[in-house]
């Protein structure tokens, strides 16, 4: 379980790098920097980092910011397809980051609970061996 948790942390880091190096980098290049909306990274209280659309003037975030940008007649038609593609990539990456983070957290919690169960079990076997003078492994085999 600990190996799975570590693998998930590594995958999450890789997904965050992909989000930053590809999607966020594209959104922060000309001509997208001329728009009143930016794509930004937002860290949650759980420690995950997601891509969000943010209106520059109000700092309002969310898909409604992106929707309003696409609906705005001032947004050049030549950017619509790329903005749609960036939103698709953002949604897919955020979903993958969320899933990998959750699986990693669950695996780490599971490993901790398994270690606790092992400690209780070992403690009980040690009690048995001390009270009977028999090795716990010998008793288990018979």
Automatic annotation (TrEMBL):
<dbReference type="Pfam" id="PF11358">
    <property type="entry name" value="DUF3158"/>
</dbReference>
<protein>
    <submittedName>
        <fullName>Integrase regulator R</fullName>
    </submittedName>
</protein>
<dbReference type="InterPro" id="IPR021502">
    <property type="entry name" value="DUF3158"/>
</dbReference>
């Amino acid at each position: 379980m600990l190996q799975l948790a570590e693998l998930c942390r590594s995958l999450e880091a890789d997904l965050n790098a992909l989000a930053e190096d590809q999607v966020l980098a594209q959104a922060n290049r000309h001509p997208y920097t001329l728009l009143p909306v930016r794509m930004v990274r937002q860290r949650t209280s759980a420690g995950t980092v997601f891509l969000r659309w943010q209106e520059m003037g109000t700092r309002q975030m969310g898909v409604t910011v992106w929707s309003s940008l696409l609906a705005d007649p001032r947004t050049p038609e030549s950017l619509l397809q790329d903005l749609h593609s960036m939103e698709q990539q953002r949604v897919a990456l955020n979903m993958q980051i969320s899933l990998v983070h959750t699986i990693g957290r669950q695996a780490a919690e599971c490993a901790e609970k398994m270690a606790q169960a092992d400690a209780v079990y070992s403690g009980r076997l040690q009690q048995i061996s001390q009270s009977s003078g028999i090795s716990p492994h010998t008793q288990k085999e018979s």
